Amino acid sequence: xxxxxxxxxxxxxxxxxxxxxxxxxxxxxxxxxxxxxxxxxxxxxxxxxxxxxxxxxxxxxxxxxxxxxxxxxxxxxxxxxxxxxxxxxxxxxxxxxxxxxxxxxxxxxxxxxxxxxxxxxxxxxxxxxxxxxxxxxxxxxxxxxxxxxxxxxxxxxxxxxxxxxxxxxxxxxxxxxxxxxxxxxxxxxxxxxxxxxxxxxxxxxxxxxxxxxxxxxxxxxxxxxxxxxxxxxxxxxxxxxxxxxxxxxxxxxxxxxxxxxxxxxxxxxxxxxxxxxxxxxxxxxxxxxxxxxxxxxxxx
Amino acid sequence: xxxxxxxxxxxxxxxxxxxxxxxxxxxxxxxxxxxxxxxxxxxxxxxxxxxxxxxxxxxxxxxxxxxxxxxxxxxxxxxxxxxxxxxxxxxxxxxxxxxxxxxxxxxxxxxxxxxxxxxxxxxxxxxxxxxxxxxxxxxxxxxxxxxxxxxxxxxxxxxxxxxxxxxxxxxxxxxxxxxxxxxxxxxxxxxxxxxxxxxxxxxxxxxxxxxxxxxxxxxxxxxxxxxxxxxxxxxxxxxxxxxxxxxxxxxxxxxxxxxxxxxxxxxxxxxxxxxxxxxxxxxxxxxxxxxxxxxxxxxxxxxxxxxxxxxxxxxxxxxxxxxxxxxxxxxxxxxxxxxxxxxxxxxxxxxxxxxxxxxxxxxxxxxxxxxxxxxxxxxxxxxxxxxxxxxxxxxxxxxxxxxxxxxxxxxxxxxx
Lengths: 300, 416
Known about the structure:
The complex is a heterodimer of chains A (300) and B (416). Chain A has helices at 42-49, 90-100, 105-118, 134-146, 164-179, 191-197, 215-220, 263-273, 286-294; strands at residues 2-13, 16-27, 31-35, 57-62, 65-66, 75-78, 152-156, 183-187, 200-205, 208-214, 226-233, 243-249, 252-257, 274-282. By secondary structure, chain A is α/β, with parallel strands linked by helices. Chain A folds into two domains: 2-220, P-loop containing nucleotide triphosphate hydrolases (Rossmann fold); 226-282, Alpha-Beta Plaits, CATH 3.30.70.100. In chain A, a hairpin with a 2-residue loop joins β1 (2-13) and β2. In chain A, 39% of the residues are buried. The model of chain A has no long low-confidence stretch (mean pLDDT 87). In chain B, strands 2-1-3-4 form a four-stranded mixed β-sheet, sandwiched between helices. A two-stranded antiparallel sheet of chain B has the order 5-6.
């Protein structure tokens, strides 16, 4: 059952088309990456998904039914541009957000406490938000979106402003939530994160879905034309005309084969010059796919 | 509804628990108290403590002028009467003024053959206009009385002849004669005007500021993913409104406590009852105040939603409350022509309703249907203003950094 099913949705503001006939499906219990350069229409798409705006055309279905506002109790949304009430105490803020999502004050308080322990910020619970660091505030916003135990979690750039330790804490939490059957959509510019976490992606450019599918399927559409070699000895095989975009470090080289070049022939030539420990035809990274697809327009 | 109350509660608590609220709640009545007390004290000092002497070669004249002066300022010390006074007394009096045992003396010298005395006031200071004016009127009255006495009229007869008349105003209401006081009506309308004006400028702008704050802190985007913008706006108005009303209630209680306790000390004001607001009027005062307050706050919220910084709100605040001044400018026309068509129409025009309708009521009770209609129209306008505000809020905040132009805002209203 798809938890999110967008069918050819479009949205224009004034004369600018933000989203054009975009379709995507997110299956239950998966982690989905919504990618694209700045201004591609990711946030506009998400806003339609949570009913903040309505599409000009096309349909939004959630949990296999047309969108209704009461579904919001089963969803959480962490926007990219997010804030907290500055003069409010952290714990009060969390209770308030929990209540807005339909929780009783006592339940919200108990869960807020658990989450604060989990995210290692118990000492800040009684502080006012304005006294906290940006990273700390990020964690509180993260907790606020999860208090009501939503089935669909939508996060726009969840890890911005976090240090590597906290990024990993966030990733672990998201993986655990996925393990419990929650569906997670996140939009980010951090390709390595998407590669590590997501089961499926959709790459949006100029309001259109230009690439969509499971990570496997997306990658398999691109030829394995990138080679990683680890060797000892004469490196002269690296001057072969079939090699391009060469990046070298001592004993290691990474390059791309020109269109139609034969990897097998190159390997033979290499073994004649040097001792080869590793010769691997690797699939392109998501970052490469992103850059290839979006081209020079991406300023992400 | 639950979300409206949750938001209202949060807005209310955030304001009521703030230090600024506490300061304003305490400092404002303190300030008023100091002003009232200060002017009371100043009045007492300027009129009460002066030692004045009245010297004349005509004892009747001196006594009558002294009595008039005593009547005119009830708190003043009775002037010392020196009569009949010879020229030699002047030197003694001058000496006493210089020694500061006397603040001044009025020298009245009656020349034979003339009914009017020559009057000279001698004092250390050059003399303030008010005490001089008071003295002149006391002197004239004293001379009149002295002349009448010389013509053989008794003091009782003079008192009866010079008694001042008062007009009692009575209003015919539903076949009953009710004592009225046009001054009190004016007072009620003015009070209404200031209550609304003041609270709109203070709390209405507070609503606008809190909308802008939510925009700049980007919390709205988190909120809008769970709450309808209309609920957000309504909750905000209720919460900020309740905070404003709490503060005003505290002030009114404090002020009436001050008025009641000082009623004895300040003659002419017998507590709040002295202002003659009867229960029916009080009901309409509260109702129209609330309607006016929410009306203008909803408009302020729309302004807050369409601007991007607090400074910009200031430019709008005066424009927003401008319709309130219409009632004030036309106050005499409205109270003397409460049933004229322009007045009726104005009282049904929601931005003007609270003041114009209240003014009409204070001079003549309008028909019940007009009152009902005016309230209904205001409720509709409030609902409309909240609707517009929430639309602008929802769309306007998605594009921040610049102020929306009017065509843009009209376009937003059409977006779904």
